[in-house]
Automatic annotation (TrEMBL):
Transmembrane segments: 6-23, 43-62, 82-106, 113-131, 163-182, 203-221, 227-248
DUF6533 domain ranges (all copies): 11-52
Record keyword Membrane present: yes
Protein name: DUF6533 domain-containing protein
Record organism: Rhodocollybia butyracea
Keywords, in A-Z order: Membrane, Transmembrane, Transmembrane helix
Signal sequence region: none
Source superkingdom: Eukaryota
Length: 249
């Protein structure tokens, strides 16, 4: 078993264990009757179960194309893997952001102003990272035997690193969400003492720390030139941690 397959299997096992261990709470809050299709329920399901398929597909890619010791895979194979990583990782983060925003939106009694602010923040984050990714990538990307890019983004035009912009954008968005939640639960209701408020803030900080670990891993992988070894754990870890973060909501 090569290193990439092992990392994917480890991520798959961790994701399944998280689903199993939190199954009782999920049944109580998500699958309770009357069972109706809601946006939150749909987002939750998309966050919880597709990661299993993502790990399996990635393990298949790894077993076919990323054999480590058998030389560098074909460039078009690595391009497929890179696109798969980017799309699935971005979608998972986007779904998590939407769930967190809906929670804040509900805290403010569906305030139109808060809704517009949250949507604007999300659009700004997506637009910023899309712009830097489209305009500051090198013309040609080479890969190592694990389909990890050999270049560092800091060597791209204007010295802009699209991955670091993505990290900064995600951190900024999460800090904004936490600030809005804290303002509502701590300041607006400072005269009251409800356990719900402390639970919401605790869960928000857990998710923030989870995303922080994920973003640090992405940052390390993006600046380590030609990195292999531990960086093969980054993508499976991102998918697993982001999927697990939704169980804290």
């Amino acid at each position: 078993m090569n290193l990439q397959v092992g990392a994917s299997v480890l991520g798959l096992v961790a994701t399944i264990c998280d689903i199993v261990f939190t199954g009782r709470e999920e049944a109580q809050h998500i699958w309770k009757k009357p069972l109706r299709i809601t946006l939150v329920r749909c987002l939750f399901v998309l966050m919880r179960y597709p990661p299993v398929a993502i790990h399996i597909i990635y393990a298949i890619f790894a077993s076919m194309w990323m054999n480590g010791a058998e030389g560098v895979p074909e460039e078009h194979h690595c391009n497929i893997v890179m696109i798969f990583r980017i799309i699935t990782g971005s979608i998972m983060l986007l779904l998590l952001d939407m769930i967190l925003m809906l929670r804040v939106f509900a805290l403010y009694n569906r305030s139109r102003l808060i809704g517009i602010l949250l949507l604007f923040s999300l659009a700004l984050r997506i637009g910023l990272t899309t712009y830097t990714s489209r305009n500051h990538l090198p013309e040609k990307i080479t890969f190592n035997s694990y389909c990890i890019a050999k270049f560092t983004f800091k060597n791209t035009s204007n010295g802009l690193n699209p991955v670091l912009w993505e990290i900064c954008g995600e951190f900024g968005l999460q800090l904004g969400i936490i600030a809005l939640a804290m303002k509502r639960t701590v300041w607006d209701f400072r005269r009251y003492s409800y356990s719900l408020f402390s639970v919401l803030n605790r869960d928000g900080l857990i998710v923030f720390c989870t995303i922080g670990v994920t973003m640090v891993g992405l940052g390390v992988a993006s600046v380590k030139k030609g990195a292999g070894g531990a960086t093969v754990l980054v993508f499976p870890s991102v998918i697993t941690l982001v999927s697990a973060a939704v169980s804290a909501q």
